[in-house]
């Protein structure tokens, strides 16, 4: 029942995000000749590339990645604070379940939705490409899905913690967005740039893509599982903090 | 006046956070320009070009756009969810006045945020032995205000159409992305102004264009008011 409750609370945001990513992925593949011909909206130095480069620049490291990161902020908004504002927290807390289970279910549903969203381009791009007599390797698309998932997990966990800790309907998303923007600048600044801590760089394999010998396939390097494990641990710590904050809150 | 105060109370946290963020980032961009320059551009550029790329054209403008959009959230639909719309509607004023007050408060907040980098950058530049022309910065302040108000009205309009929690914000962001992609399509420049290009000074930004954008923003607020008057709360 808690699963259904968490799903119903987040389904509009999830479906809108999924629809947007699907539309953009389909648009990129189906209108590829038109976009390449009219040279939009790809930056000048990336135009007229081969198909894999085009998809990489528009979807996996481009507009779609930005949209995904931004909309995940809203997917992560949960907790009981907003229920207090709606005067429904009392009903939820009266259920014969612990707060941990209420919050834990919200987190679990959110993570499943996040994984589904990260998979949208990985399924659509290779699938639709065949209709256009093009090919995009599924392993490469899946590679980016994994990166999007772990990058999105960090954004999701920060957003969730903020929505648990801060009252005010739009305070948490605004703070989360500003933190994400601040992180982008700080991690990309001169002293920190070599450590590649920037989430957007990690999610898009920024400057680590390599051409194959025939120069017709843009390939990512092997996944750094250690880095992904650290990201998952960080997200776990943030979720734990959200649970602890909720346990101590007085509704 | 009381309605303006109400609108201010409802949006002040978002506004003050945005104010702090834009002021802070403008200051960082100026004071740490040598460190941040590598993150903004791939090669050595002049100070004024760096400021344009980082602030008036690039990252900070993107942040401002999203914040302006989020300033448009709120309104009677959200009040209905909180169970307070009845109190607001019981006030002896028309719905039009309520919508207008929220619109005016948002426009003022958007304008204040727009002029923040335009005043901070030329004022702080001498502290790092650099110079940025006041006239040029204030021109960007005007362009940001006009563009920001149009983007604010997108959020404002979405908040009237969508009543679900955060649905309006998500819908407004998607609308903004769709608009941004649509303006890049060939031939569209004859029908739609690319507000991003106008704001960064690389697109049309003459008096006629700015007037047309302002009228469009006013029309969107008017449409939002019309929808509000016909809704059943």
From the N-terminal CA to the C-terminal CA of chain A, the straight-line distance is 22 Å
List the total number of helices of chain A. 11
The ordered H/E elements of chain A are HHHHHHHHHHEEH
Low-confidence spans of chain A: none
Q: Can you describe this structure?
A:
The complex is a heterodimer of chains A (251) and B (233). Chain A contains eleven helices and two strands. In chain A, strands 1-2 form a two-stranded antiparallel sheet. The two termini of chain A are 22 Å apart. The model of chain A has no long low-confidence stretch (mean pLDDT 89). By secondary structure, chain B is an all-alpha fold. The longest helix of chain B has 30 residues. The interface between A and B is large, with 38 and 39 residues.
Write a compact overview of the structure shown.
With 251 residues, chain A is mainly α. Chain A has helices at 2-30, 32-38, 51-60, 63-75, 81-85, 89-93, 99-131, 138-165, 171-188, 199-204, 225-248, and strands spanning 210-211, 218-219. Chain B has helices at residues 2-31, 33-40, 47-56, 59-71, 76-82, 85-89, 95-124, 134-161, 167-184, 195-200, 207-230.
């Amino acid at each position: 029942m808690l699963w259904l409750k968490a799903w119903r609370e987040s389904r509009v945001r999830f479906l809108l995000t999924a629809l947007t990513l699907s539309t953009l992925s389909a648009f990129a593949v189906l209108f590829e000749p038109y976009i390449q011909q009219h040279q939009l909206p790809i930056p000048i130095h990336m135009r007229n590339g081969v198909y894999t480069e085009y998809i990489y620049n528009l979807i996996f490291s481009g507009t779609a990645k930005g949209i995904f990161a931004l909309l995940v902020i809203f997917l992560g908004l949960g907790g009981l604070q907003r229920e207090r504002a709606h005067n429904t927290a009392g009903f939820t807390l009266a259920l014969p379940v612990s707060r941990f289970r209420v919050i834990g279910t919200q987190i679990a549903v959110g993570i499943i939705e996040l994984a589904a969203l990260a998979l949208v381009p990985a399924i659509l791009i290779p699938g639709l490409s065949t209709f256009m007599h093009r090919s995009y390797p599924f392993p490469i698309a899946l590679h980016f899905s994994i990166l999007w998932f772990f990058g999105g997990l960090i954004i999701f966990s920060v957003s969730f913690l903020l929505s648990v800790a801060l009252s005010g309907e739009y305070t948490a998303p605004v703070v989360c967005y500003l933190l994400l923007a601040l992180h982008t600048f700080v991690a990309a600044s001169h002293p920190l740039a070599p450590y590649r801590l920037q989430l957007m760089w990690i999610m898009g394999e920024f400057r680590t893509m390599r051409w194959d010998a025939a120069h017709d396939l843009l390939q990512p390097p092997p996944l750094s599982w250690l880095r992904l494990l650290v990201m998952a641990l960080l997200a776990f710590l943030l979720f734990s903090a959200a649970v602890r904050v909720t346990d101590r809150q007085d509704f | 006046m009381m309605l303006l105060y109400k609108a201010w109370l409802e949006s002040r946290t978002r506004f003050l956070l945005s104010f702090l963020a834009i002021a802070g980032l403008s200051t960082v961009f100026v004071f740490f320009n040598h460190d941040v320059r590598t993150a903004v551009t791939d090669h050595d550029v002049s100070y004024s070009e760096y400021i344009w790329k980082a602030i008036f054209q690039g990252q900070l403008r993107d942040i401002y756009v999203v914040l302006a959009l989020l300033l448009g959230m709120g309104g009677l639909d959200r009040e209905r969810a909180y169970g307070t719309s009845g109190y607001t509607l019981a006030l002896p004023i028309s719905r039009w006045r309520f919508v207008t007050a929220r619109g005016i408060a948002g426009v003022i907040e958007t304008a204040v945020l727009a002029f923040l980098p335009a005043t901070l950058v030329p004022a702080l530049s001498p502290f790092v032995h650099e110079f940025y022309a006041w006239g040029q910065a204030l021109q960007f302040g005007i362009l940001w205000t006009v563009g920001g108000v149009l983007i604010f009205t997108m959020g404002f309009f979405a908040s009237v159409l969508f009543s679900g929690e955060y649905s309006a914000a998500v819908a407004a962001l998607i609308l903004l992305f769709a608009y941004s992609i649509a303006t890049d399509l060939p031939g569209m420049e004859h029908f739609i102004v690319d507000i991003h290009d106008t704001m960064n000074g690389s697109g049309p930004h003459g008096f006629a264009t700015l007037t047309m954008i302002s009228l469009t923003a006013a029309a969107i607020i008017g449409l939002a008011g019309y929808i509000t008057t016909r809704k059943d709360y």
